[in-house]
C-alpha cells in the first residue's frame, strides 16, 4: 500500500518581528498564515494522504485566541488528515495553547493533535508514533519508546518528533530535546518526520527535517520548503522531494569597503533586490563622506523597495578626503571639528564620533553655500 505525505514543521504562528519597522513586521506576521494556505493547496494538488506538522505550530503559548482561530481557518483548503505535534515553543503543558484551542472548539475533526506519546492510527493507512514535548526543554530522548511500540501489521510506521538529532547538528544545538541518531532504523520506522531545525535537512534516507515553510531568519539553511514523501509500501525507502513554499527571501550582505569599486559593487547588489527580499546589511571598512552619502541614498532607496531592511554601519570608518572638506566649505573651526571626529573614531567613543561625523557632514552639505552659518551651527 503506497503512502504519500506532506511533511512540514516550525510554522511559528504568531511570531512577532520586533527588529523590523511596524508595517514590515505586520507583513511577515501575516506571511505565516498565508504559507499555511499554500501548504493546504499543495496537499490538494499532490493528493497527499496526510500533512504532518512536526512541532512548533505556534510561536508561543500566549498567542491570542484570534491567532489560534486564524490558523485553523488557514488550514481549511485541505480536508484530509492533518497530524500536528507540540514542539518546544508550544509544548503540551497541562495548560497550553493546545488545550485552549480545544476549549475554543476550533480544531476540526480532520486535525489530529498528538498531545500524548501514544500510537495514532490515521485513515487505516499508517500509524503515527509521536514524541510531543511536554515542556520547553527535555534532556531525555522522547523517541525512545518508538522502538518498543507495536503497530498493526501492514501499516506504515511513521515517527513524528521535534528536537535535535545527536552528533549531527551544530554542537550548541545538542543540549536539549535530544533524538538518537539512527532512531528510524532501531524503531523500524518507514519515515521519521522531524522539526526544530528551520532548514530542510536529510539525516538519513528515512529521517528528514522539513524546515520552516516561510523563512524567518538570516541563515542560509535551505528553508522555505515542505517535503513531499512517497513510500511505495511498508518497509520501502521513502522518495523525498522538496517543494517551494516560502515567499520571502531572507538575505545577508556584509560588504567591506576598501576601494571605490567595493562601493560600486555594494550599490549594484542593493539595486538587484526586490519586494520579496528581507535584507540584513552590515557594512564595514572605510569610505569617504561622498561614498557614505551615496551608500545612504542607496540604502534608503532599497528600504522603500524591499519587504524589510536592517542596516548596520557601526563598523564603517569615515575618512573625509580633502575634496570632502573643501566641498563642505569646512574651514576654520568646522574643519577642526571634522578632523577631531575623524581621529576619535579610533577611541572609546568610536561609534558616537562616527555618528557625529555623519550628522555634521549632512548638515554642512545642506547648508552648503553658507559657511558662516555652518560654522555657527556647529559650535556648542
TL;DR?
By secondary structure, the protein is an alpha/beta fold. It contains ten helices and 18 strands.
Cα-based radius of gyration, to the nearest Å: 27 Å
The CATH topology annotation of the largest domain reads as: Purple Acid Phosphatase, chain A, domain 2
Determine the number of helices (DSSP H or I, runs of at least 4 residues): 10
Which CATH architecture of the largest domain?
Answer: 4-Layer Sandwich
Oligomeric nature of the chains: single chain
Please trace the helix and strand order, writing H or E for each element.
Answer: EHEHEHEEEEEEHEEEEEEEHEHEHHHH
How big a fraction of the residues is strand? 15-25%
- Overall morphology: elongated
Class inferred from helices and paired strands:
alpha/beta
Count the E strands.
Answer: 18
Give the distance, in angstroms, between the N- and C-terminal Cα atoms. 82 Å
CATH superfamily of the largest domain: Metallo-dependent phosphatases
Mean pLDDT: 90
Query: Considering DSSP H and I runs of 4 or more, what fraction of the residues is helical?
Result: 25-40%
CATH classification class of the largest domain = Alpha Beta
Largest sheet: 6 strands, mixed
Order of strands, widest sheet: 4-3-2-1-13-14
Amino acid at each position: 500500500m503506497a503512502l504519500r505525505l506532506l511533511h512540514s514543521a516550525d510554522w511559528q504562528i504568531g511570531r512577532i518581528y520586533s527588529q523590523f519597522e511596524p508595517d514590515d513586521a505586520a507583513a511577515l506576521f501575516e506571511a505565516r498564515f498565508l504559507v499555511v494556505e499554500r501548504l493546504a493547496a499543495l496537499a490538494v494538488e499532490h493528493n497527499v494522504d496526510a500533512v504532518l506538522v512536526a512541532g512548533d505550530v505556534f510561536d508561543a503559548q500566549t498567542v491570542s485566541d484570534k491567532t489560534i482561530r486564524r490558523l485553523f481557518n488557514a488550514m481549511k483548503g485541505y480536508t484530509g488528515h492533518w497530524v500536528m505535534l507540540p514542539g518546544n515553543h508550544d509544548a503540551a503543558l497541562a495548560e497550553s495553547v493546545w488545550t485552549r484551542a480545544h476549549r475554543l472548539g476550533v480544531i476540526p475533526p480532520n486535525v489530529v493533535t498528538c498531545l500524548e506519546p501514544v500510537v495514532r492510527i490515521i485513515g487505516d493507512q499508517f500509524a503515527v508514533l509521536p514524541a510531543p514535548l511536554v515542556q520547553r526543554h527535555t534532556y531525555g530522548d522522547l523517541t525512545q519508546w518508538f522502538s518498543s511500540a507495536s503497530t498493526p501489521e501492514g501499516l506504515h510506521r511513521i515517527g513524528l518528533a521535534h528536537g535535535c538529532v545527536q552528533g549531527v547538528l551544530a554542537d550548541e544545538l545538542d543540549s536539549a530535546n535530544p533524538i538518537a541518531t539512527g532512531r528510524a532504523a532501531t524503531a523500524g520506522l518507514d519515515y521519521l518526520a522531524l522539526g526544530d531545525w528551520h532548514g530542510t535537512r536529510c539525516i538519513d534516507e528515512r529521517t528528514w527535517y522539513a524546515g520552516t515553510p516561510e523563512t524567518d531568519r538570516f541563515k542560509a539553511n535551505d528553508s522555505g520548503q515542505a517535503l513531499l514523501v512517497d513510500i511505495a509500501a511498508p518497509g520501502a525507502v521513502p522518495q523525498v522531494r522538496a517543494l517551494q513554499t516560502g515567499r520571502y527571501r531572507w538575505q545577508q550582505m556584509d560588504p567591506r569597503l576598501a576601494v571605490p569599486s567595493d562601493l560600486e559593487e555594494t550599490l549594484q547588489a542593493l539595486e538587484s533586490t526586490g519586494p520579496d527580499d528581507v535584507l540584513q546589511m552590515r557594512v564595514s571598512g572605510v569610505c569617504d563622506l561622498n561614498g557614505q552619502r551615496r551608500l545612504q541614498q542607496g540604502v534608503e532607496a532599497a528600504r522603500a523597495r524591499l519587504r524589510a531592511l536592517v542596516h548596520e554601519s557601526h563598523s564603517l570608518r569615515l575618512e573625509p578626503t580633502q575634496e570632502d572638506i573643501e566641498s563642505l566649505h569646512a574651514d576654520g573651526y568646522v574643519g577642526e571639528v571634522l578632523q577631531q571626529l575623524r581621529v576619535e573614531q579610533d577611541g572609546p567613543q568610536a561609534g558616537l564620533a562616527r555618528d557625529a561625523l555623519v550628522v555634521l557632514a549632512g548638515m554642512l552639505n545642506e547648508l552648503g553655500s553658507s559657511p558662516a552659518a555652518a560654522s555657527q551651527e556647529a559650535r556648542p
